[in-house]
Amino acid sequence: MPWNDNANPGPWGSPPSGEGGGGDKQPPKSTGPQGGGPRRPGGGGGPGGPDISAILDRLIAQLRGLFGAGGGPGDQIRPGAIAAVAGAGFALWALSGVYIVQPNEAAVVTTFGAYSRSETPGLRYHLPTPIERVEKVAVTSLNRIDIGGSAGADVPEESLMLTGDENIVNLDFSVTWRVADAAKYVFTVRDQEDAVKAVAESAMREVVGKTTLQDILTTGRGRVQTQSAELMQRTLDGWGAGVSIVEVQIRSANPPQEVVAAFREVANAGQDAESAVNEANSYRNRVINEAKGDAAKLTQSAQGYREQSVREAIGEASRFSQILTEYKRAPGVTRDRLYIETMQRVLSRSNKVVIDGKGASAPIILPPDVFRAKTPTARVAPQAEGGETVIPSPGAPR
Fold it and tell me: Could you tell me the pTM of the whole model?
């Protein structure tokens, strides 16, 4: 309905009598679909459109009925309304104590600021504020602190350290840690990350102060990392910080920039010395193995020769015994056979000269080539069958 319709006033009552053209009552304007008057806010003046004014009237009437009898100046607020509002507020305050602890968290509950208990992951409840409060701490997440600088930006106040042999090393390292006890972590140390960083730097300086520079630059890094982590853990446990050190890793360890070139030369010399030692060890191993092989070969040859000599001696003894038995039976025949066999064995290994002594009257002169060793280029006398050299007599035809 239009707000100027006096026949059906709005929630603020009827307009004054003088309003609307000197008190004359204006006829209501047409609100039908074909009228030119203003339309209702609902988008249409037909019987099916929503009446916002009526809805507001009903809402105001319900509130007046809840808090007072008629809304006059003498009406009082009903006790039931106060109880309902108080009950709703108390319910909301009580429900504010419901909270959820994530799987990677642990909750620390305090009662009026004092530690009360620790809660595990899940849906939990605590007395609403200000009676109890909850602080959640990530206990499974790994935290990392870089000491000495990062991304190529060194911090000399943190990275320069004095070694055990009174040298200076520029050392950057990282510490990985996590929360082991949430209650101790919250209540013991105020600035936990600063405390871990301070303990890490102090522990590393102490360990480096007991180690030589050469060990830090070469093979002693692992030992330095392990000793630093153990010292940090002992210190933090003594404080009751509730922190567990996972790993200490040295990212870089170099001499100061002013002496880098000299240290590089020293490192190169050490590598050359190590290479020479390795070559010497390789040569020693090769020579020793060859000598062992030659010794084993000689030993085996000696053992074979010994076995051969023993067996030959046994065979010769057995042969002599057999010959002795035959000699006892027939001495003459045995002597002739032994003579013939001996001459055959001796003459078969030497050059032989057979001279036909028939009709010889002058000395026989043998050519020197007969007694020389046979070579492919040497000229020798003609040989007869069986490898024998035949020298004709002086009177024999050539």
Answer: 0.48
